[in-house]
Input
Amino acid sequence: MTTTSKLIHGYEVVIGFETHAQLATQSKIFSRAPIAFGAEPNTQACAVDLALPGTLPVMNREAVACAIRLGLALGSHIAPVSIFARKNYFYPDLPKGYQISQFEIPVVQGGEVEFFLGDDKKTVRLVRAHLEEDAGKSLHEDFIGQSGIDLNRAGTPLLEIVTEPDMRSSEEAVAYARELHKIVTWIGICDGNMQEGSFRCDANVSVRKPGGPLGTRREIKNLNSFKFMQQAIDYEIRWQIDQIEDGHAIQQATVLFDPDTGETRAMRTKEDAADYRYFPDPDLPPLHISEQWVQTERALMAELPRSMAARFVADYGLPEYDATALTQSKDIATYFEAAANASGLPKLAANWVMGEISALLNRLQVSIHDPEVPGPLELAALLRRISDATISHSGAKTAFQELVTKTRKDLANLAEYLVEIDFIIESKGLKQMNDTGALEKIIDEVIAANADNVAQFRAGKDKAFNALVGQIMKASKGKANPQQVNDLLRARLAG
Output
């Protein structure tokens, strides 16, 4: 749980999250209707989704399996028996007049999400994660002054993940949301597409004086990007503080964020649980999950991010921060491990994946599998040549850019990629000067031509030493081995 708070104008911020993750099933949660995104309105809604008389819901087993996997990933308790309930409210896009959800006994209970915010490790506790169906969608055609209802989403399987109010800043809230997004996509239960509504976040925001009771919360609905999430929470915090300072009481409400104005606006008064008149759904029996089913799902799951990060620390000697950064994406983690194993240089591989590789992905806006991105064996070959001092770090960056722009070759092994990188080094004149005799000659010439810097260094001024190194590197056209230059120059100046 978060224990430190950053006060804003003397107020402590309190944030909790409710996240709706659309589950990666082939059909809806209680019917066999498809859930493909982008279909023509009302072409993916069957009689069950429309709540026609005589229809009955049938539980989608894969949706339950997705919930089990999330519970395993987050260290939650998976209820052996859970209950479905009817959540009653009346919207045009809710054909039954109620939503099938879970209330008193959800399928996933407790658990936690751990993440880094800068160098600080944070933990957010979960209250629950429950299965439910999505509603339809209202379509407003402003140019003709009409509205319509698209029921394609009605019955789409969701897992609503609810936290304790453990977050104390917008930065912390966004870091939590990013980590949860990583987890649900890593374990394959959600595609995480925020623009298509597959991963929707609601932030419950309140403020209070330190040590005081929790303030009245307002819920910011359907935040569909991390950028807007932070903007919306920051605006809401400022708005609530201004209201309280002006003597106004905060009213519990549901609000929307307008990215064009950067402001939140009230949509409706926020309901409490009693307003929904929950009661067990008579058409659905209790959901039974056996321990054998849980263990089967555990055996099928890939290595989880936290476990992989711990292994990277133990097996490769990486700092915990590096290991966590490398396991933000399964594809990135797999790429790093392949490069580390092939090169035998895990720390150097980590530095390059977090540095040059990540910068390349951001610049090109591509995935790690894009043809423009050098493969892990290509990177491993480059790392080998850095390690054996064939090439300097600056020269390696030049060689890396050559790898980016050249046509990818599907070579058989590391030895063949070493031949390729050696050709680039030779053809571009990037090979480091490691000839001791040649370097000593350059060093002697620089010492002779820079008597003032020599005198200053011997008088205890370290900057003078760096100036001499710069002159030597310039004289060698950047090809001298920096470490060798440092060692030889110090030996000469000490003589």
User: Anything to note?
Assistant: The mean pLDDT is 91. The chain has three domains: 12-292, 303-427, 436-494.
